[in-house]
Write the structure tokens for this entry.
Amino acid sequence: MKPFRERNPLIIGAVGLTVIALLMLAAFFADDLPIIGGGTTYSADFSEAAGLVPGNEVRIAGVKVGKVRSVGLDGDHVKIDFRVDNAWVGDQTTAAIKIKTLLGQKYLALDPQGTKALDPGTAIPRNHTLAPYDVNEAFNGLATTVGQVDTSQLAQSFEVLSQTFANTPQDVKTALTGLSALSKTISSRDQQLAQLLGNTNQITKTISDRDQQFQTLLSDGNLLLQELRSRENAIGQLLTGTKNLSAQLSGLVNDNQAQLQPALQQLDKVTTVLERNQANLSKSIADLAPFYRVFANTLGSGRWFDTYICGLLPPAIGPINPEGCTP
């Protein structure tokens, strides 16, 4: 075998890049590999997709067991491929598209039935599948339908119908008169109804666009409630301890009320005296500042008093202070 130094470096580089590309593809599609990815891929036929998209969860009895791989049109029905991992799927299994959140996110629910395992090459038939009623699509369709209805012509039709059955029995006449009044009301509120349905459509679209944020908010709220539940005993003990502490403090005050009352009365007298002599205290503090300044200068030269006595020597020897001893 030739050493790598004697081989063509271009061929070695190309082979290395190819191997790296294959490893990256294998890592990216690891879930689809037969050994690494695991799980079995099945399919089901539905009358409609009902908002189910690839990546949605597959659940059995509320437990996630896989995810939807693809959703596509197959003739006059919708074919959904999904992968199931570590779960048994029988030959009589039923599948239903259900609503996961109030914002319209869906998941595929399986109900395993039958006596033998389902063949992955055999799709779950349409008589064993069920698609939900999509409220968002209903509102969207209602808004479009109302916008296309000629409410004026509808009101006129009900009016003519009411006049035609004017001589009919009272019950029929009353019912038609009510329909005529209803049609007139709808016709007069045509613009408001169209605006209301348009706003409803916009609100549902906004909520649907914010589905992930709502899920995060609900998940965080669930985590908060779980944390509060897990710390229920600690919170209960804290509240009980606070209650006991307040009881002990109340008892302490009651037991020492005879001693505390005279002390508070004496303290009140002291504060009264201090308040009455507040001006004198302020003046004493103000006069204390020069004294401390002179006292600091007196002791600032060492461990002695640096001062003199004015008038100790007679003036004939020599006046120490020409201005006299009068300050």
